[in-house]
Design goal:
Number of strands: 14
Mean pLDDT: 86
Order of helices and strands: EHHHEEEEEEEEEHHEHHHEEEHH
Shape: globular
Distance between the termini: 36 Å
Radius of gyration: 25 Å
Helix content: 40-55%
Structural class: alpha+beta
Length: 394
């Protein structure tokens, strides 16, 4: 089983200069390879593989760019391999087209081999021994890939992917009693089919407010000045703090749910499409509010800040490690509008309706009802679950 462990490293001044040069070399090779691929395809409908680009890089090192020899050759080759994968995914899987890398954003490079741990140090090609904070044991296994990165705040990290040669545990049996349905929201981040609600924490809002003030201050500074550089670092630190707060909270939620339940049913949300389709807020008479566009932007920002996709990723890999089940229902299943007791659709339900009554006499909390329906839909076609159990009203 493959597992990744991320640690912070502390290179000295000389090693930081070496890393800056290596990051620049990796970025140069990636951008040059992408430009070569684009020009070859647009001019002659020709495709270059990573092997072809690697062969060209040999001549580049000897003639036009001898400074590339200062960078570990493994990192340059991995850069071309990653470019080839991204380029192939664009044509075969419909992923986004590869973008040119910038020196002003996060920097990274990969090593397929040659990295090892020695007590409180990690040995990296050409950098030798670098101090590392091993806050948790790496465990036994073979190191497959090592990714070295530098954030926009100037911190260095290493991510080590190991193969511990342990088979994933057998999946738990699926039944209604040990299953849970999850509905993702904005006011409440996660709502379970049992009625528990995980709030959207207040510290998200306070950090976001501080970030807004810092960004406005940055916009008033002259680009290139020392004041602009210092304020840019302040903004980057607030972004990092907000990201760390969100990840910590999502890790706690996902760990609690995976430990407590054997089957977790979630909805396949189209977040990008959801924010595009979000309409401006209307009043009771159907007229758009004066600040409706501002409300729409605030709602879109709130949806994107929740981290629903990141939470789903955490649930999936933690469930895989624990032998638990993840059931994903279709994005077009009527989880919100359908009564979880009688199955009737309430097509007149709006975003402002947080509670509603069904004609069968059932009173519903909008979010809890959606979570119950997600659970029922998730169990409906699962093997080992009877139709009666799948349609049972929680």
């Amino acid at each position: 089983m493959l597992k990744a462990f991320k640690y912070r490293i502390f290179p000295d001044q000389a090693q930081q200069e070496q890393l800056a040069k290596a990051f620049g070399c990796v970025r140069f090779v990636y951008n040059l390879g992408l430009e070569t691929k684009v020009m070859a395809w647009t001019s002659a409908q020709k495709t270059y593989s990573c092997i072809d680009l690697a062969n060209q890089m040999v001549g580049l090192k000897n003639v036009e760019a001898p400074w590339l020899k200062e960078c570990p050759s493994q990192a340059l080759q991995m850069s071309l391999r990653n470019l080839d994968n991204a380029y192939t995914n664009f044509f075969n899987r419909g992923k986004g087209f590869p973008k040119f890398k910038s020196k002003h954003k996060k920097q990274s490079m990969q090593f397929p081999a040659g990295v090892r741990l020695e007590e409180e140090f990690i040995v990296i090609p050409k950098l030798k021994r670098v101090a590392i904070d091993l806050h948790r044991p790496l465990g036994k296994g073979d190191i497959k890939t090592t990714t070295l990165s530098r954030t926009t705040t100037g911190k260095y990290f290493v991510s080590i992917l190991i193969d511990n040669h342990i088979e994933p545990p057998t999946k738990k049996p699926i039944n209604e009693k040990t299953a849970i349905g999850l509905d993702f929201g904005v006011a409440h981040l996660v709502i379970t089919s049992e009625g528990k609600k995980f709030e959207n924490k207040e510290f998200f809002r306070s950090t976001a407010n501080a970030l807004r003030v810092a960004q406005r201050s940055l916009a008033r500074k002259t680009k290139g000045s020392n004041h602009h550089k210092r304020q840019k670092l302040v903004v980057a630190l607030l972004h990092e703090k907000l990201r760390n707060q969100r990840q910590d909270y999502l890790h706690k939620i996902s760990r609690e749910l995976v430990d407590q339940y054997d089957t977790i049913c979630i909805e396949d949300l189209d977040v990008k499409g959801l924010t595009k389709r979000m309409e401006p807020i209307q009043d009771a008479n159907g007229k758009y509010l004066r600040n409706g566009q501002k409300e729409k932007s605030a709602m879109n920002r709130a949806i994107l800040d929740c981290g629903w996709l990141e939470l789903r990723t955490m649930l999936e890999y933690k469930a895989e490690w624990a032998g638990k089940n993840i059931s994903v229902i279709g994005r077009f299943d009527p989880s919100t509008m359908m009564c979880s007791c009688c199955g009737k659709l309430n097509r007149g339900l709006t975003l402002a309706d947080r509670e509603w009554d069904c004609t069968c006499g059932a009173h519903h909390d909008r979010d809890i009802n959606a979570a119950v329906n997600i659970k029922n839909f998730g169990l409906r076609n699962q093997p080992g679950v009877s139709q009666r159990e799948a349609l049972a009203c929680a």
